[in-house]
Amino acid sequence: MNISYYLQTFDHFLIYLATSLVLFLIGTYIFKFITPYSERALIKQGNIAVSLKLLGKMTGLVVVLQSAIRHSINLIDLAIWAVIAIIVQIVLHLVIEYVFTRNTNLAKEVENGNVAVGLFLGGVSVLVGLIVAATISY
Predict the structure, then answer these.
(1) How far apart, in whole angstroms, are the C-alpha atoms of residue 72 and residue 80?
(2) Of the four listed, 7, 11, 47, 100, which is most buried by Cβ atoms within 10 Å?
């Protein structure tokens, strides 16, 4: 391959990058919208638990998006699979978080700064993302 090949495909790289970043921001915004407390304010106050939980949710989204990027055949295919995967990621996150927090107040623990709970729930989001990402390839 020579440099002209890379120059010819650079526009595709930029389009996929921009599309993926927009989808990532949309997914992150939806997570922010469904969170009962202000993650931004709590992180600004130094709440590590909230930071870890949000980082886990964002990482789960990125894992899903990278799988959609790798397995898409064109930009429309990427957008469709990314939207489906983001929706599934969010729904599964809500279901799993409900299962783990229904008899306890783990969400309040995160808000209060319990790092172990924040790390656990953030890690669950990453694991859900890995499962969703794996299913995109089939």
Answers:
(1) 9
(2) 47
Cα 109 to its chain centre, rounded Å, is 22
Positive or negative CA dihedral for 39, 65, 91, 109?
Answer: negative
Looking at residue 136, its pLDDT comes to: 82
Range of the domain at 35: 3-136
Q: How far apart are CA 120 and CA 19, in angstroms?
A: 30
pTM over 0.90: no
Three-state SS string across 46-79, please? Answer: CCHHHHHHHHHHHHHHHHHHHHHHHHCCCHHHHH
Parts of the chain with a pLDDT under 50: none
Coil, helix or strand for 36?
A: coil
Tokens, residue 115: 């790092």
The model's pLDDT over 20-44, given as tens digits with 9 standing for 90+, comes to: 999 999 999 998 888 888 888 999 9
